[in-house]
Specification:
metal ion binding; single chain; flat; 5 helices; HemJ-like; mainly alpha; about 180 residues; transmembrane helix
């Protein structure tokens, strides 16, 4: 019975972590766009967006990432035999990439909090989709538990990535027409 509670908590913290990752990059986009606004708007937007990003990052996203890791290892301790299976190695590799993504978001967060905007809003929109691709990979691997599915999953991920890139480009064109 303890396993089910631990697994449920692991899933809950995965969900809150991803919610934080998705929303923090959305805030990064708004912060990058705020730098392009007239000074009067910028004076209002940037402090508010910085505050929102700070609260999201340190109150929700970081704790969720840490608790996901703790409960993930705890769940794995009940199913240690999974470490012998290739799908788990692939899943953990994607989880590792997700933590690298998280750490790079930390760098972007720090830069924006210090008034440095090194990314365009379009680049950040693309960056936001990296978490989506990782989410798909991790969920399909853990649900299907099959390396053959990984091959098809990778093909699907590339197709999904291509579709998202086309969507981002289309959205950019729509926004540019709207601003004319």
């Amino acid at each position: 019975m303890a396993f089910e509670y631990i697994k449920a908590l692991h899933i809950i913290f995965i969900v809150t972590w991803f919610a934080g990752l998705f929303y923090i990059v959305r805030l990064f986009i708004y912060q990058a766009e705020a730098w392009e606004k007239p000074e009067q708007e910028r004076k209002i937007l940037i402090p508010q967006l910085n505050l929102m990003a700070n609260r999201l990052w340190y109150i929700i996203t970081w704790p969720s990432a840490i608790l996901t890791l703790i409960f993930g290892f705890w769940v794995l301790s009940y199913r240690w035999g999974y470490m012998q299976l290739g799908f788990m190695h692939a899943k953990l590799a994607f989880v590792f990439l997700l933590y690298l993504y998280h750490f790079y978001c930390q760098k972007i967060y720090k830069d924006l909090q210090n008034g440095k905007s090194n990314w365009t809003s379009t680049q950040l929109r693309v960056w936001n989709e990296v978490a989506t691709v990782l989410l798909f990979a991790i969920v399909f691997l853990i649900v299907l538990k099959s390396l053959i599915s990984v091959v098809w999953g990778i093909v699907g991920l590339f197709a999904l990535s291509l579709f998202m890139m086309l969507g981002i480009k289309f959205y950019k064109k729509v926004r540019e027409k709207k601003n004319l």
